[in-house]
Amino acid sequence: MINNEGNTMSINDSPAIASQSPAEPVQMSRRRLLLGSAGAMASVSLLGLSPLAKAAEPKTLPDYVRWKNANDMIVHSANTIETQRGAVGSGVVTASDKLYVRNNLPAPDANIVADRDAWKITFEGVNSPQSLTLGDLKKIGVETVTTVLQCSGNGRAYYEHGPGGTQWGTGAAGCLIWTGVPLREVVAKLGGVKPGMNYITSTGGETLPEGLDPNTIMVERSVPVKALDQALLAWDMNDEPMPLAHGGPLRMVVPGYFGVNNVKYVDRVAFTEGQSDAKIQASGYRIRPIGEKGAPDQPSMWEMSVKSWVTAPLTTASQGKNLIYGVAFGGMNAVSKVEVSADGGETWKKARFLGPDMGRYAWRPFVVSMDLSAGDHRIVSRATDTDGNTQPPTRTENERGYGNTSWKDHGVTVTVS
Amino acid sequence: MINNEGNTMSINDSPAIASQSPAEPVQMSRRRLLLGSAGAMASVSLLGLSPLAKAAEPKTLPDYVRWKNANDMIVHSANTIETQRGAVGSGVVTASDKLYVRNNLPAPDANIVADRDAWKITFEGVNSPQSLTLGDLKKIGVETVTTVLQCSGNGRAYYEHGPGGTQWGTGAAGCLIWTGVPLREVVAKLGGVKPGMNYITSTGGETLPEGLDPNTIMVERSVPVKALDQALLAWDMNDEPMPLAHGGPLRMVVPGYFGVNNVKYVDRVAFTEGQSDAKIQASGYRIRPIGEKGAPDQPSMWEMSVKSWVTAPLTTASQGKNLIYGVAFGGMNAVSKVEVSADGGETWKKARFLGPDMGRYAWRPFVVSMDLSAGDHRIVSRATDTDGNTQPPTRTENERGYGNTSWKDHGVTVTVS
Is A323 in Cβ contact with B139 (below 8 Å)? Predict the structure, then answer.
């Protein structure tokens, strides 16, 4: 399936779907290359690659995200665009123009954001089911919450068994301020959730390609109904009307949950007894052993876990005192501590958080001052959340390369001179 | 004095200087017009003006701030550009592309941000005076702080005696995230402040026009040395390298102090016994009775006071339940409470804050739900800080129209139908 940019797209992560389209090359693991200007060779050495590995041609930003800052982005494909690791800086909030993009289907036509308040959302599985417009929602209530948005496959590039899909490093993540109506307030207005409903099922308003079973391609995700306490139907991102590329006019935001559950262009919210039959829910985004197919009984990519990574320095540094920066978040809990090591994890030094605390679901930039001697240093960071969960040294191996939180994998080798 | 945009510029607020240049028209009070598209007639009625008042031609953004979002801005002149009142939304942080601009001198040539780390700053009045580069500063330490940046003349448009200068409404203010080195850490490195020094005096690196006494035109501001505890030499704004228009590569940020003290392109920081002799300090930015000239014994525009204003709705609303939005800040203290009235201050309803608390010096968006009946409503907001200071009903009259915090002045008249 080729979108109008001429780039390939992957509809979801299923090999069956992939075979219907000239999808992204598989077996890209350990060959992921930063396509930005200065980073290419540097990242080769970071990933322990032979300098003989060939760099792909840099790709330009597709039209619908031309407004992003090209220098901060790595264009994997028209629908998978990563933030450069070094672009985060001391960032409390990720500016929209450097936020990653991962669309499971091409973004709808821009006419859906021409009259935002007219956008319709159907609510089902409540005692008084009905359709409301975005204009209606704006009158019900409002809240603003800051969350980490992270793709399930962030960190996939570090898996060695070669999972297909986009070879994300650290940049399929950002920290955003969302404004919208709490879903629970809408539900209260609609008479409450019907008895026996276990899931919140959100459907994206993308136009589906013809000739395919909708279930194999539609973006419809179910999350446990307990997420009702935090879920937001958001119309603003970073105090701007939600950009089309990020789900405007309306996006489901489920704080602490992986990106895929934050359904874009949401036009239906249903409280359901079971999970959606859509492939993206039933077999996609499932944690399973290497070599196995996805199935509904495997863990779904819902709640995120504690994670951190260094954002500077990434390749070189000067001898002596250096400030080492990074970001850390707890997923479902606030992050409470970050430690940094410049010797690959032999010895650790506690970092301090930088800037305001944006709440439980946000990330926190961190910084630590370290004296570095000449030579190569493996710099790693390790975060702990308020429940005492600490980032593990190694990843959990799984077929699709999901949910990588290994602190070893996310380290960088910096040459100090 | 005409800059290369062909627009007039006001060098500082002194009538003496103004007479040397075709400065902004005086007697503009109550004739301030929103130059944006839809707002012009609306604001006329807000200000209680006759519809016969003539609107000026809309002005386009000058080249050095062409990257700003024109729809969010009101261009008063090349160096005075206001944020539209309604552009704030539910904004925890003000995006750079809608932040106001107020330059006392034209912005320097863009080559000063070509090699940011090479920028030199001289430190004086410390025990080991010396020059450091921005690159040096970045190794000393780092902190991130969120502050309200507000021009001393914000709200001048509401004064009735006709103070000259830019006729700012509410939009010469924003809330920004700054990252840089705490000044106190630099000073510690330079052996501490010399005994007997009472002020921190910061000098801007603008190129001064020839043929004028530098003291009459240079941007050099002194603040009490107690601000050393909070002051930051900032290189990032909203996690991007400081834009040239906002003082890049390096800006002095004095949390809680009016904008003018946050010296742009800072290239000298001196601890001094007395205040600067520069006109902008000695007689400019002084609170004095109407008709009097500025003098050093009058209060300087240093610490900001508690203030708030409504940002939506501004002109019209529908009968029934409405969410009323605004922003509030405490100046030197955190804001603790905001009340909103839809009957010009007869009865009040407590608003709630929206989104994360970004710290003592930040503003907080607020929202309150109110039932509005058909007819005209005067909507006003009134903030209180943690010390119990409440926004006053009326402004403090003063020659230059500085420091307006009157809740009456900042109200809007909304037609409900």
Answer: yes
